[in-house]
Amino acid sequence: MQAKEKGLVWGLLEAAGDVNDGVRQTVASSLITLGHQHPALVLTAIHKFISSPQTAPKVHVQSILYNVAENIIRECGEKIDDAEVISTWMDGAVKLLTLPSVSPDLQEAASGFMVALGSCPVYCNAVMESLIAQIQTGMLPSQSVIETLGALAAGNVTGTVPYYKIILGLLVGCLPAVKQESLKNAICVMINKFTEAILEAVENKEPDPNISLESYVTESAAIFELLVNLWIKSSATSVRHEAILCLGHLSHLLPTDKLEELAGLVVTTILSMYRKTSCPYSLTFSLALIMDALIRKKITEGMRFHVDHLLSSLFTQVCVSPNYTEPFTVKNHYEVLRCYELLGGQYPENVVAHLLQRLENASYQQRVGSLMVIKHLINSKTLSAENVASLITTLISILHDPNSKVVKSVTQVIVALCHNNHLTPQSGAPFITYLVKHSAGLPSPQTRRPSLAEPEEESVPVVCRRVLHLLATTVEAAFPLLWPLLLTFVCTAEHEASLPTTMGCLAHLAKTISEFNEQEPLLVGSPGPPTSPVLLSRLLVLSCTPGNGVGVSALTLLQGLASQVSPRVVDPWEKDLPQLLATLQDLTEKVDLEPSAIHMWHESLRDFLGDTITNIDSEEYTMNLGKAQMEQLHLYEKQPTQLCFLMSLIGITLKQSTSKTFIATNLTTLFNTINQKSPSERENFALCVGTVAAVHSQLVLTHIDMWLKAADPAKKPISFFSLIKDTRAEECSWTRATLVQCLGQVAALTPPEADQNWVEGPIMLHLLNIINSNKSDNVNEAVLHTVSSIARARVTQQGNSLRQRPLLITHLINTIKPDNIPIHILASTFQGLRDLVALEPELNVEERTIILQSVLTAFMPRLAQVETMDPLLIKCFAQLGVLIRTIIQKDTNPATLDDVTTLLQSWTVSPTDLIRIKSVELLHTTLKTYYDHVTFTVEGPTNFNQTCQLLAFLVPRVTDPSPLVRSQAVGSIYMVLRIAGRYTGLTPDHQDKDLDTIKSVEEQISADDPKKIDGLAEDVAQVISNKLSFVQLRSFLSCVVVGLQDRLPASSAGVALTLISVFTLRGHQLHQHIKELLELVYNRLEKVRDRETRQRAVEAVTRLSSHNLNQVLDVLLIYPLPYDKGVCETWHHIGRDPMLCSAALSFLIQVLERTQLFSEQPTTTEATVKIATIPPLAAISGLCELMHDLRVVKEGESSEDSWEKVENSPREEHSQTWSASQDIIKDNFPSLASLLLLLYGSYVGVMAPLHQTSSANSKSAFNFVPNRGATTLVPSKIVLTCLQALIDVIDCASISNLLATKIRDESDENMEIHLLTVSETVAMLVHESPKHIEKLVSCLDRQHPYEMQRMTVAAVFAQLTAEKCGGNYELLEKIIDCLLGRLNDRSVHVRRLAVRGLSNFAHLQNDQCYFPQWFSVSEKLKEIIAAMVGATDQRDTGSSEELSVESQVALEALRGLAALLPRLPQETVLQHTPTLLIRIRLFSEKTSGEVREAGLGVLRGPGSGCGQQ
Fold this sequence. Notes:
This protein is mainly alpha-helical. Helices cover 68% and strands 1% of the residues. The strands form two sheets. It has a three-stranded mixed β-sheet with strand order 1-2-3. A two-stranded antiparallel ribbon has the order 4-5. The relative contact order is 0.02.
């Protein structure tokens, strides 16, 4: 080993004492790995580490290292060449084994090392010599040495055997001195292992070929006597048991005479100890060893006296059930059986008598124990055939014992008997019957929770089934016992429950034992196997129910018995039966079988029976088969399915018979046998009768007629009990129901060539008589099935008409009219109607409508009463779907489709989800059927006129809350477009990207994401828009708008979304129909309460406006004032769009500028009133609504009457959303403000119109229609509201508040209020938005036709003069020119306001930085003074106390001059002094104090000038 490896080993050794257990284990495994590579060096290092005083580890570490050394020696001991290393380790280990103070763990590790070393042939001798050296005569050996020698004896037999004689000789002398119990036990164990090793060596003749037992006789005898005399009498139980076990082992080494001498004593001692121990394994094992030794040495006579005692004691042990959680109890059980086997071989008569006695005992424990022994003795072949035969006879007598443990034990004995070929068919029959009988039960219920210590026990039936299966599949000796005995159990009622097991065994045997089929006839009847007709009938019925565990076996057995049934069926059955078996296996593997699959399977079996009877072609066989079938009816009293199937098989048999007497007798018997109240029995009896009628129609109808007469309650005899309770009517109703079904089956199964007039003759006669006289629900249900059967039968015939069809349809329609009709009756009625509809001729429109309306009305309301559909409802709905499909298929034309879809439409809008789901599903089915069956001719239509209507009422369902409705609706739209494409000449396989889009939407529309649903709905709308022509589009829009009023908000919102898409894509084509479309939308919108629907509908109109804005605005302007909410929101949406907003502004401005604002109308008092015209007033209202959403509304404020307002939504974000439109309004603010100010002035004193024009195209502005909201309108307030909205857009809160106050003021508007409002508004505007003043002045400085407009302009200019135009003095000069120009206006009020504006210059001197400079240089000064002086010229000379208008102008001029003259230069004042003095003199003569005061105030100016002069 290299230095690094030495260091590695030493490091590992130092870590071996780590406190962590995981570290210690890792170190040990590492040392072992290194030791396998370098064993000598690692062992050397470990020994040095252990023996060195500096590194000597603790005891537990030494134990670990010794275990490591043991592992290395076991793997690589023979590879170690260094004898010194082995010697060193051996000396150390022996030292540890002999020192009494060494820890037991360390001694155990040292012992293991010595055993590993001794197991190597190279070192075995050295180890044995070193260990023997520790045993000295007369001295007690170390227990560790004894244990090591015992372990070596088991580990290396060949190497240690030569030393046994020496060791045993040394032990003989010291055994009497042994007092320690543990040492005694160790010595006994060692002797046991020595004995086993000696016997093995003698048996194998190794290592010495001459080795024999005689070599050990002396030592063994001495030890045996010592153990008998001393140790088995010890007070310690463990010592006694080990000594007894040692005696058993030593018995093989004793001489014959010694064994014969002491065996009796030992056996007696062992038997006496059974009563004193709870674990007798060692006793039983020793007893078995001694008995084996006696038998080997042929010492039997001496033991004969102990046999009975032995059997008694052993039987007590065998009756104790082994506990599998305690291994010694299991071992003891098998040792007891071994003892029985040994005794049975030598004393069979004693053992058999003993067992027979115990079998006849009443205790089930003893029977179970004896049966266990019998099974073991039979399997071990211990007993002779005569002894087994006596046991079989006794076993037959106890087969009546019902105890489950006895039964299970008997089954095990039966298996042993069969396996060892002890049974013949005669002697084995009771046992096979026993197994079949007990295999029929059900598993017993578990009465208590099993303990974990107990193995899970199988029930008696399960055990018997397993045994039968084992015998039939594995034990060939049992085949003659089972076959054909098991066949006798197939057709008996008492063995019905065991059929799955019996049939499985028979099926396997039929395939395995082919020679039985070639022997003499097997199916000979009682008392042997049943006859072939009996067995054929039974097996076919058993195979009718897939999954019952019998069917496949029955057909397999039938396949194996083909030659026994008849040679004529062998070839046909080889062809047919494999196919039937494959079909049955497929049906058996399916979990849920459809009724149709079961029906088809039964049909296959009936066809198979019919073919079999035909192939056999024997009337005698047919009659025997029929008799067998009738006799087997009682077998199925509790199995209705099989009973009903047997009835149908009887029909097949009777159909093949030619004996009318035989047929009549069996039909009558069967009619009297069946339970008339069972629907399934009635149905299958009717099937039987119908099958027979296919060949014997006259005979069957005669019997039906006879039975109908007998079923008349008036003709039934009255008994005494019927006087107490008359049940004749009820019984007769059940009978009539059965016969009605028979009539239907007769009509359905009678061949067309034999039908002739049977159906419309006697059959329909009987049926109509029953319908007319019937009052029973049972009969009515049978009538429904019969009608359906008759109609189906007629459909398959040429000229498939039925003269009585209208009567039958009327009867069925009347049947479903009651609201409480059972659902299964409803389904049957639908089926009957379906079959009647399929007949010729086609239904007329009235019949078709009545049928459709009746069935929908009968079925759909039921869905509102349930949450989910049960199987009956599902079946009923399926029948309804088939009925509608049949109607479409029978008459595939647009009129039929229109009838169906029109009646379904009302159900598709139901508030009940299930009704909508099923109605849309029916619609989809209808369209699919129409598409599949529609045909086209040259003269046929080229357009599908229902396209628009169908698409229109399907669109709301595309966004229905139910995923199923959405999916079906999209699928229906796909079918509508497909149908429309076919009408336009497209082929069925035509590829269309739009239709592919619809299919993709159909797959995804079931998602729950609302946004995704809306996106898919838009895709559908785009496809519809692309597919419809212009004419179709108009029709579609007029129909789809109705969906805005859908009961479901999601659906109505989906309709609005569709309108958005269509108007976006096709709006440019609708310019001629704007008014019509808007009326459709707004009329529906008035009744819509869902916010999202209204929003989307208005958005749709906005999209339409983007293509036809002027037309839309024209229509909007003719709507009554005040606008409805829908119209208002349309204006709002137009305002949000920058392009539409700009265009709408231009349009409205043109309307306001070009339209007469009002007209003067005469009144009854010959006065005139001003009436506002509609267009400009509507335009003002539209302009106000246009700016509604563009206003800057402060936090806490809200827009009134806004149904679209979103709660908790900040208005700042709302405004920012449409900032582009706001910018447009702001850019046009001066022109809009000027226009609104002029309109405000124009509408002072103007009344609102009380009526509205009827048409936008009307030439007269006064074509009146009633307008209920017009009485609340005030034109001037409308203008102020619009002006407030405009002010809110530029965010002037103070002006908005002022206007709001004016709007709320309920006083009548007059000129002074108007002028005050204008002045205040302009004053605030100058301060809050001076940037707009200049453009405002430019817009106002124009010619205006109305006096009030000119007054408004003068008032604005006058106020701007007072406000100095916000510091814009260049603009002020322009305003002065305007005011000077208005002094010559024909209106006195305008002149007065112009003078007021000029007078406001008196206040300008307060501006020191401006006024002096401007006034000193302005050329306008003289003109202003002259104008004002000229304005003092009073033209009105009236003497009224109240000032005239002209006086007011002069008064304004005087007040202005009074304020202005004192501040003017002297030369300027002196120029006008003469004129002023003349005017003042005139004013001083006025009666008005204001005028005189103003005139005297003017004198201050000239007076000051003259004074200074």
